[in-house]
Amino acid sequence: MKKTIFIIHPHNNLIFNVTLNYLIKCLIDRHFYLVIFTNCERSKTYFKGNENVKIKTLPLLYPKAPRKPWLFIQKTFLPWISAKLELIKSKNPNIICIDPEGFHTAYQMFPSSLKDFNYVSFEIFFSDELKEERTIKLHKKSKHLLKKGINSLIIPDKYRLRLFLTEFTDCKINHYFFIPVSPSKFYLPKTGSNIPFKPNLQEGEKSVIYSGSLYDWSGIKELIKSMKFSWDKKFHLYIHSHGIGGSFKADLANFISENAKGFSVKILDHQLDYTDYLSFLMQFDIGLSTYIPFTSNSPYDGKNFAEIGYSSSKFNTLMMLGIPTITTVNNSFIDIKKEYDFGYIITDFSEMGIALAYINDHFEKNKIEASRIYDELLDPTEKVKLFIDYIDSTF
């Protein structure tokens, strides 16, 4: 019988999560049979034709099952029955559950298999930051289950583990694994990758890329406001996000014209697959990986962002590509900067001019150091192998 692993994925970003995507690839390469419970529609076509992967609908159990009978049957009951049948067929699978929602849902699906759970902590919630009743209940349930005991915890770095263990006291976890939220060089573009945009620069000018979500925690408004006070005009800012469109794009353009008039700022909204996305990023000289915690009541952007560390796929990707980077303060980045001169850490956006000038003066060194960080600290290859070797040994 094939060694079977269930993956419980509660989010809509399965194929865009670089760490999870690489872990799945490695599990397939090692000939495990994967049953992935998810509601990410694109995953059904992404893994189509792979005989070692089965995509199943994740039962709708969090925050609660639907009340309308026909919705309950369609969204919860039938997927739940299907999951139970998979458990019977698979005997004793290992179970990988993603984040608090995945952990909670996995337990509702397979309560007798808690000891076989491998909890992947991309996000950490904290009791004193929770406002909604459903997340408070979820958090209390997670604490209760962790005290009962699970197989392993996968978490990006030691600082986030410290936060996790401070929040979840008296938990029983057999093994801990550090795996950064970092891409593998497997995804680096080969020749012929599609690049839909190229910066148009004159000699002596440099391109600066911010690519990612544009919520308040990104610091994008503070970044734009800093331009007229501290930027040299030889630095051109490019803002890229899949989510820019319609009125939001127009509002951002207006904000730029009001706060950075006379500076070069371009808004980009190209939809790219991951390899083409890396080709796109590789064109830029300087990267931005900025986080402002506590900008809303969301449990995601409090202490979870204040200590983002190796959980920042943005920072880790820029390091893999050897792009000197400006980032905001947290303990992990401060530790890294002591030994690797990857760029500059700002404590306030008023320091952007100093940061850009520093990278301009140390550009080649910063590039080399960024690549060295990835090779020595952030490359997930051996870390993922270590986890899979452990999983293999438990069958």
Characterise the protein shown here.
By secondary structure, this protein is an alpha/beta fold. The chain folds into 2 domains: 4-179 and 380-393, Rossmann fold (3-Layer(aba) Sandwich); 187-378, Rossmann fold (3-Layer(aba) Sandwich), CATH 3.40.50.2000. It is 43% helix and 17% strand. The protein is built from 15 helices and 13 strands. The protein has helices spanning 18-29, 42-46, 69-90, 99-109, 133-148, 158-167, 220-230, 246-259, 274-281, 303-306, 313-320, 331-339, 352-361, 363-378, 381-393; strands spanning 4-9, 33-38, 53-57, 94-98, 117-120, 150-155, 173-178, 206-211, 235-240, 265-268, 286-289, 325-328, 343-346. Strands 3-2-1-4-5-6-7 form a 7-stranded parallel beta sheet, with helices on both faces. It has a 6-stranded parallel beta sheet with strand order 10-9-8-11-12-13, sandwiched between helices. Helix 1 links the parallel strand 1 and strand 2. Helix 4 crosses helix 5 (133-148) and helix 11 (313-320) packs across helix 14 (363-378). The longest helix has 22 residues, at 69-90. It is globular. 39% of the residues are buried. The model has no long low-confidence stretch (mean pLDDT 93).
CATH topology of the largest domain, anyone? Rossmann fold
How many DSSP-defined strands? Answer: 13
- What's the shape? globular
Which secondary-structure class do the elements indicate? alpha/beta
Which residues sit in consecutive blocks of at least 5 with pLDDT less than 50? none
Question: How are strands sequenced across the largest beta sheet?
Answer: 3-2-1-4-5-6-7
- Following the backbone from N to C, one meets helices and strands in this order, namely EHEHEHEHEHEHEEHEHEHEHHEHEHHH
User: From the alpha-carbon coordinates, what is the Rg to the nearest angstrom?
Assistant: 22 Å
Helix content bin: 40-55%
